[in-house]
Specification:
Length: about 475
């Protein structure tokens, strides 16, 4: 079954048809690195991670690019308030971003371009728009003339005439239209700047993403993603400047993530309900937070509460308990085959339908219920059934949704086995000291049946597992 999802550009559910067969190119608007990102940002980062993972699951070769905006008014203002350079602020919070997405189990992007590393490319694109008569100069500032792009508003649904007539009067009254936006900003005193044909200055926000996406993915690529708040003006402006410069479609599919509310209220520092991802991860697991996000369709508003997050934590415990039951189930020689194919089909049916993660989660917990009942019925599992069940958990819950980590369980099991073997060896050594060799030999023989071999050398007993 083909993947279908809502395309903000066409305003409808569309079947995904990649530009290149078997390949997907995705650009995601990343953070402006002036502070720790909050749980609303985290939702977008996690959901695009799940979407990317699902494309990989379906066999696509995915190239994923996420930018870092490392020069911006917010960064400059933060630097001024802390008495440090803008570059220092950007470095600090870029590092924090990478630390926090690692904690969230987010797969690293293939490329993390930075705005400050692409200044020459930005200047080239602005010059191209100037040469075409689409951009114009006022002093040291360069603006984009939105009337030169007749399709302006096609992503957001806003009408050009309404934007022009209804726009707030800008400080710069020399602009041709109040809604024209800056491509290049003349340097202000004590601000970072770069040399350009128009004097010292820095790029506008929108032009940065156009350059970084096209440089790494081509002038036309498959998917552009970001939060709902970026549809206008940021993504609208990206389309206008990119397509006006190249004469080609920019991104073919647009994915946008819904807003996050706290206890049915907008998240706000003034209301005292503002949480960074870093703060939440000090008290709750990344798996619980990912599960909470996945329980709401990516494009819909999500209501966040600590109670709901605790419920997700409890659900993760149920999932872990089920996996532990599988790992420790008594091994049987004969048993009917456990059918995992139905669950794979139902999972894919959910994800193929607009990345319906709530339904995909329901499939996983239905699977957990079936597995638990199956183990209870037979009081164990054959090696084949155990392998099939764990493979489903691995491919779906781990590799796509990122709500478990079987490698963690393996480390835990290895440590547990080590401790148990130490107890068994100590008991056996005690039996040998008491010359109860029949019991000591029985322990050795029973372990051998489990492929565990004891070795006695120079008064020390070690073990090895023969696989």
């Amino acid at each position: 079954m083909a993947i279908k999802f809502y395309n903000t550009l066409s305003k409808k559910i569309e079947e995904f048809i990649p530009l290149e067969t078997g390949k997907v190119k995705i650009y995601m608007c990343g953070p402006t690195v002036y502070d720790y990102f909050h749980i609303g940002n985290a939702r977008s980062f996690v959901m695009i991670d799940i979407i990317r993972r699902y494309f990989i699951y379906k066999g696509y070769d995915v190239k994923f690019v996420m930018n870092l905006t490392d020069i911006d008014d917010k960064i400059i203002n933060k630097a001024i308030s802390e008495g440090v350079s803008a570059a220092e602020i950007a470095r600090k919070y870029s590092q924090a971003f990478f630390e926090d997405i690692e904690k969230l189990k987010i797969k690293p992007a293939d490329v993390y371009p930075k705005a400050t590393e692409n200044i020459n490319n930005i200047i080239e694109l602005i010059q191209k728009l100037m040469d075409k008569g689409i951009a114009y100069q006022i002093g040291g500032d360069i603006f984009y003339d939105i009337t030169k792009f007749p399709e302006y508003g096609k992503l957001s649904g806003k009408k050009l005439e309404d934007l022009i007539s209804g726009a707030r009067v800008d400080v710069n009254e020399l602009k041709r239209n109040p809604a024209d936006f800056a491509l290049w900003k003349a340097a202000k005193p004590d601000e970072p700047y770069w040399e350009s044909p128009w004097g010292k200055g820095r790029p506008g926000w929108h032009i940065e993403c156009s350059v970084m996406s096209m440089k790494n993915l081509g002038e036309t690529f498959d998917i552009h993603a970001g939060g709902n708040d970026l549809i206008f003006p940021h993504h609208e402006n990206e389309i206008a400047q990119s397509e006006a410069a190249t004469g080609k479609p920019f991104a073919r599919y647009w994915i946008h993530f819904g807003f996050l509310n706290i206890d049915n209220q907008k998240m706000s520092k003034s209301l005292g309900n503002f949480f960074t991802a870093r703060e939440i991860l000090e008290k709750f697991s990344a798996e619980a937070l990912r599960l909470l996000y996945a329980q709401t369709i990516y494009s819909a508003p999500l209501n966040f509460s600590l109670e709901l997050l605790q419920n997700s934590e409890n659900a993760i415990k149920r999932l872990k308990n089920s996996i532990h039951q599988v790992e420790t189930a008594i091994q049987l020689e004969n048993q009917e085959e456990f059918n995992t194919s139905r669950f794979y089909s139902e999972f894919e049916e959910a994800m193929d339908d607009n990345f319906n993660t709530p339904q995909a989660m329901a499939v996983i917990f239905d699977f957990v219920k079936e597995v638990n009942s199956f183990i209870a019925k037979y009081n164990g599992l054959t090696a084949n059934n155990k392998e099939k069940i764990l493979k489903f958990f691995e491919k779906v819950a781990q590799d796509v949704l990122g709500i478990i980590d079987l490698h963690q369980y393996k480390k835990f099991d290895d440590k547990l086995i080590d401790n148990l073997m130490k107890i068994i060896i100590d008991i056996r050594n005690q039996m040998r000291q008491e010359k109860r060799f029949d019991i000591a030999d029985a322990i050795r023989n029973q372990l051998k049946k489990l492929n565990i071999e004891l070795e006695d050398k120079k008064g020390i007993t070690t073990y090895k597992i023969n696989k």
